[in-house]
Amino acid sequence: MRWVWVGGSAAVACIGLAVALFLSDLETLSWIAGAGSFVIAVPSLVLALLLARPRSRPDPGRPAARTTANRIGSNSGASQQAETVNAALSEVGRHGDTYSAETINIIRPPADPPGPALREGAADWAGMSTPMVEADPRALGVHPARRGDDGGDLPPYVARDVDAELEGLLLRAGERGGAVVVEGDSTAGKTRALLHVLRRTLPHRRLYAPVPGDDLRELAAHLASSPPREGAVVWLDDMNRFLGQGRRGLSERVLGEFLRCGAVVAATLRAEYADAYRTTASDGGGYRLEGRGRRENDAALLRRFIRVGLERVWSDAETERAAETGDGRLVEAAAHHGTHGIAEYLAAGPELLRAWRDARRSTARGGHPRGYAVVAAAVDLDRTGLLTAPTPSLLERTHQIYMAGLAALRPEPFEQALEWACRPGDLGASGLLVPADDAGERWWPFDYLVEATASPVPLSVWAAALDHAADDDERLAIADNADDAGHRDLAATVCEPLARTGHPRALFLMGYWAHDRGDLAEAEEWYRRAADSGDPHALLTLGSLLEHQDRRVEAEEVYLRAVEAGDLHAPGFLGQLLADQERFAEAEEWYQRAADSGDPIAPYALGRMLQDLRRLAEAEAWYRRAIDVGDTDAPTALAHLLAEQGRHSEAEEWYRRAIDAGDTRHLISLGNLFADQGRFDDAEEWYLRAIDSGDKYAESNLNLLFVRHGRFDKAEERCRRAIDAGDTGALSTLAHLLAEQGRHSEAEEWYRRAIDAGDAFASYGLERLLAEQGRRSEAEQAYRHAADTAQEGEDGGS
Question: pTM for this one?
Answer without folding.
Answer: 0.67
